[in-house]
Write a structure and sequence with these properties.
- The complex is a heterodimer of chains A (about 260) and B (about 325).
- By secondary structure, chain A is of the alpha/beta class.
- Chain A has two domains: about 1-80 and about 160-230, P-loop containing nucleotide triphosphate hydrolases (Rossmann fold); about 90-155, no CATH class.
- Chain A is built from nine helices and twelve strands.
- In chain A, the strands form three sheets. Chain A has a six-stranded mixed beta sheet, with helices on both faces. In chain A, strands 2-1-4-5 form a four-stranded antiparallel beta sheet, covered by helices on one side.
- In chain A, helix 4 (about 115-125) crosses helix 5.
- Chain B has a single domain (about 1-15, about 50-315), classed as Orthogonal Bundle (ABC transporter involved in vitamin B12 uptake, BtuC), CATH 1.10.3470.10.
- Helix content of chain B is about 75%, strand content about 0%.
- Chain B is built from 14 helices and no strands.
- Classes of the chains: A alpha/beta (about 260), B mainly alpha (about 325).
- The interface of A and B includes residues 52, 71, 103 and 156 of A.
């Protein structure tokens, strides 16, 4: 069953129609890249899919159910969102912060479930944060804070991961490792992810589908091999982007050229 | 562990309060009181005068602490206290008007409570007018409305006779000498405590920010509305009993947080116990230090509160408030 489907979806920001009549079908097990220039509505689209913003027109269906009918904890168990801006520095430890990701799963008002501890410990370990468990979050570096946000999202364990620039602040090793972990969640659990990013190279390695926003309401959508082409990218980003294939012909690299 | 210690502290503070004063009584006498056949004069004093006042002090301290915890999350501001949104200003303006008109104690309570309710409605309506709820809007509205009440209070103070000004000042500084807690306030504190505990996990999540809390399944708008009303009503009921007792609602939550109780499941009951004990202790001092002269308890809370807060702050240098 299709995990998420949009019908005739329009996104308006400050009275500008950034996305017009979006028809998107996200199947379980797929990883989507959301690409486009600054201000083309990437974040607004993610927030609309997470029901933080209302859609101007159109509908969103989550496994066949209209998103408008879902809310609260049941919705939070199915859709999770990684925000572009980091965690606010209210005094908390790394562990406490990651544990908040379990909120939609808590059964008891007061008692902690041992399963929650296990999930959170695993999530912290996966993002190399286990040794920082007891640290206060305001002592974390930018990259560590980003990994903590990712760990919190993984603890939430939604079916649809919406990621707003997940590679922000991450070093190269953690970009690759962290996103591979996320991708494993997606393929292993019949989930899906949508990541907004400006790193075309990373996206081409991590994702299998692309939604490329043009900024004037139009968009391109399809498998990576059909969308990540010089012509499309150059048009979308308003500068010439070259694509070079590596020796084995398996990987492609993209860079802007004058 | 912390909760256990605080419960012991609460019991100790109540005993201290009951035993201190112009009429001395031993702990032994007090504990045997229920079994003694004939009641001595001392015991009568304790039962009729000290006990109600002690209970009122504990209740007010608990109400203000709970309200302080809620305000600090609601406004996401560590400087927030129960009085920041103008509830106490409204109550004070109401109370002072009653004193100005020479009303009875009954009407003073009614007037103070009406003033507080008026202020709650005013701030809420203005903060929500037209636009979506935002923390900044709420805070600004609260501060502006407070300033308005402040002007009215000053007007009443400057135009009143010397005798009335004295009692007005006591009211403004927070004073428990006339205080009797009604059953409403017990019920409110218990309801607030229960509600707070039921919402404590959602409150933990809310500290992540509105949007993140929303995506984790918290109905942020409804929660904020509930928190605003709860904090306001808790404050109003405390203020009506004892006037604007400062400092308790600001520092009791912070002290608990700095002692490591950041999880609201523990922070809420701990802050209530600490705030209650603190005010009971402060009030005992207020009536004994310069006896027979009684001090407004608000003066004592600040005098004890400031140095102890600085001490806690220094000792928790590794954790930011």
């Amino acid at each position: 069953m299709t995990l998420l489907q949009t019908r005739n979806l329009d996104i308006l920001v400050a009275r500008r129609r950034l996305i017009h009549q979006l028809e998107l079908k996200i199947e379980p097990g797929t990883s989507w890249a959301l690409l486009g220039r600054n201000g083309t509505g990437k974040t607004s689209l993610l927030h609309t899919l997470a029901k933080l913003l209302p859609a101007a027109t159109g509908e969103i269906y989550l496994e066949g159910e209209n998103l408008a009918t879902l809310s609260g904890k049941p919705l939070a168990r199915r859709i999770g969102l990684l925000f572009q801006q980091g965690l606010p520095a209210m005094p908390k430890t790394v562990f406490e912060t990651a544990m908040l990701g379990r909120y939609p799963h808590h059964q008891s008002l007061w008692k902690d479930d041992p399963e929650d501890f296990e999930v959170v410990e695993n999530a912290l370990r996966e993002f190399d944060l286990a040794h920082l468990s007891a640290r206060s979050i305001d002592t974390l570096s930018g990259g560590e804070a980003q990994r903590l946000s990712l760990a919190q999202l993984v603890a939430q364990a939604p079916a649809l991961y919406l990621l707003d620039e997940p590679s922000n602040h991450l070093d190269l090793a953690h970009q690759l490792k962290g996103l591979r972990r996320l991708k494993a969640k997606v393929t292993g659990h019949r989930a899906a992810l949508v990541m907004a990013s400006h790193d075309i190279n990373l996206v081409s390695q991590m994702c299998d589908h692309v939604l490329l926003l043009m900024g004037d309401g139009t968009y391109l959508t399809g498998p990576v091999s059909e969308i990540l082409l010089e012509d499309h990218l150059s048009e979308a980003f308003g500068c010439r982007i070259r694509r070079v294939e590596s020796g084995e012909g398996k990987e492609a690299f993209f860079f802007p050229s004058a | 562990m912390l909760l256990l210690l605080l419960t012991l502290l609460a019991i100790a503070s109540v005993l201290f309060s009951l035993l201190s004063g112009s009429v001395t009584l031993s702990l032994h006498d007090l504990l045997n009181a229920p079994f003694a056949g004939e009641e001595s004069l001392q015991l009568q004093i304790v039962r009729e005068i000290r006990l109600p006042r002690t209970v009122a002090a504990f209740l007010v301290g608990g109400l203000l602490s709970l309200s302080g915890v809620i305000m600090q999350i609601l406004l996401r501001n560590p400087l927030a206290d129960p009085f920041i949104l103008g509830v106490s200003g409204g109550a004070a303006a109401g109370a002072l008007t009653a004193i100005f008109l020479g009303s009875s104690v009954f009407w003073l309570y009614q007037s103070a409570f009406s003033g507080a309710l008026l202020s709650i409605l005013l701030v809420f309506t203005l903060a929500n007018a037209g636009k979506r709820w935002s923390v900044t809007r709420l805070l600004l509205t609260g501060v502006v409305v407070s300033a308005g009440w402040g002007a009215l209070i000053n007007l009443l103070l400057t135009t009143s006779s010397e005798n009335t000004v004295q009692s007005m000042l006591f009211w403004l500084m927070g004073d428990l000498s006339q205080s009797r807690a009604s059953w409403h306030s017990y019920a409110l504190l218990l309801a607030g405590l229960g509600g707070g505990l039921a919402l404590s996990r959602a409150l933990n999540v809310l500290t992540l920010g509105d949007q993140n809390a929303q995506t984790l399944g918290v109905n942020v708008e409804a929660l904020r509305f509930t928190l605003y009303l709860a904090a306001s009503v808790l404050t109003a009921s405390a203020v009506v009993i004892a006037g604007s007792v400062g400092f308790v609602g600001l520092i009791a939550p912070h002290a608990i947080r700095m002692l490591g109780g950041r999880d609201h499941r523990y922070l809420i009951p701990s802050a209530v116990l600490l705030g209650g004990s603190f005010l009971v202790f402060a009030d005992s001092l207020a009536r004994t230090v310069l006896a027979p002269q009684q001090l407004p308890v608000g003066v004592v809370t600040a005098l004890i509160g400031v140095p102890s807060f600085i001490l806690i702050l220094r000792n928790s240098a590794t954790q930011s408030p």
